[in-house]
Records
---
Amino acid sequence: MKAKALILTSVTLLTLIASSAFAEEMHMHSHNHMEGMTTAQGHQGKGSVNRVDVKAGKVNLTHEPIASLNWPAMTMDLDVMDKSTLNGLKAGQSVTFNLVEKRKGKYVISEISVVK
Ligand SMILES: [Cu+2]
């Protein structure tokens, strides 16, 4: 009787250890998943600069289609998240950029880099 109780205790303990290890792994997975989702919020674009307005924090771009947003190719004004992003940017340059949704349906440039 005593031995049986001991075995039961051991099994319970093992189950506890196993489930906490599982919980640990689950946590890591969900953490990785969160990071993946953060990255997925950005949309990569490619285009060329037509006008830069550092003061207004705007850039006019002719961009290629952006599949992840279902945007066709077009020429448009885009706001930047941080005006300093536009420093040194000039008309005629080819760029790649990253768009983030600032608020519902409003996309702004979080990063822009000149393609050399
Ligand atoms: Cu556009």
---
Amino acid sequence: MGETKTVTLTRDLTLTSTGGGGEALPQVEIPKQLGAVELVREIGKGGMGVVWLGRDNLLGRDVAVKFLLHAVASEDDPDFAQFLEGARAAAALRHKGLNTVLHADVISGVPFIVMEYVDGPTLGQVLQRTGALTLAATRVVMNAACEAVGVLHDAGIVHRDIKPANILLGQDGSIVLTDFGLACPRPRLSMGSRVEAVAGTPTYMAPEMFDKNVSARSDVYALGITMYELLIGTAPFEGTLEEVREAHRSTPVPVENLEPFEPSLAEVVGRATNKNPMFRLKTGSSMLVALEEAFAKCNPMVSNKARGESELAALTQRTLGRAGLVDGGSKATPQVTYYDRLNTLVQKRKESDGGEGIDLVERVLEEAKCWRCSSPLKGEPLTGRCPGCLLLVREAMRARSGGDAATTPVPTPGATPSSEPAAARVNEPPAKPGPNTTTAPATTPAGKGLRSKLRAAWRNFLGG
Ligand SMILES: Nc1ncnc2c1ncn2[C@@H]1O[C@H](COP(=O)(O)OP(=O)(O)OP(=O)(O)O)[C@@H](O)[C@H]1O
Ligand SMILES: [Mg+2]
């Protein structure tokens, strides 16, 4: 017998109005090849179905295929028409923060949706492995999530299932909201019956959703709960479905737990999770504006976006590393990227130059120390930040000649809206020349040499 040409999916109709009854879960065989997409392996299961990694052999790219195992559908089923309507609305949207919907169909009664594959963990997996995020990482995630939800709301779409498990963290630093193509009304997946078995979802549900009233403000509520969870490490209400539903209806979210971070952040989460949708922030975009105003009041040292981005990148890698140990790796089909080629080039150069090689980044060459925290700067990229206090390396170098780190007054964090420029100003002697006089390798003969090396490297790289 040759290679198997089908995969077996297990339907779970216990959540539909017609299914259930304690019978064995029905299995359905579907072809491994769905048009141009070949199903490679299962990536994960959620409350509504299962997601497979697929390979589009025509276009040479990986995709994610989500099968909705709770719905019964055929082309003439009204549910399927609604499912398609939602998928169509989602497919019309293009935004870096939204998981692009590529195709939707039904096979052997199982609706499925083909999406862009995101090579990285969900925010839920990151939280599970590492606990609460820092303020800086929370800011980056919430910014991206609110912006993406704002785009949906502007297009008249309500997501209805915003939660960390539906936010994907790409290894390229992307933050992508997924599952919004499934946001269409699905009467068979009525809210009451669906949540009976979906343990994670009620945690983020606005009170009115338990009464089947849904609006953009319900998404805002879920964003508020998500933000609370990111900062505290656990969602505000946990327990049985009944307990959680009751808490959403009558217990205020304990936003006072967020006050030590910054009272204005606690206030925004309070406005997002008001029991009455009328008093809530209206859309993802209005939540984004309110949050940015609140973050602007935080100590800039701890809410710095660049810092948040690098922390998130590290968390993503750590989560992937651990996932790899558990399930043998969940990597997609390897693809050679631009950066891989660049790395190979640098590696080859290093070998042929007897280990010295060229570096494509300009670095601090001298034994310099950061004026503010005294961390050594030698070897740091000139465009980077001090490893000790995150001051821009150029700033850390510039002020060095104007003051000694040990005697220079350290500016009080939070004393100004942005401590970094302020720090540079505090320490900068008025008559001091600009950055080029102390660093600026680009203007030195060594810098010129580097540039010509770079040009030659580029010519090689491009095959010229
Ligand atoms: N576009 C995607 N690219 C890569 N992996 C994905 C993609 N979408 C989902 N996944 C993976 O599939 C797993 C299962 O996703 P699924 O949406 O079924 O679960 P869930 O989000 O926990 O539940 P729900 O059905 O309520 O959304 C996720 O945990 C994630 O690891
Ligand atoms: Mg999901």
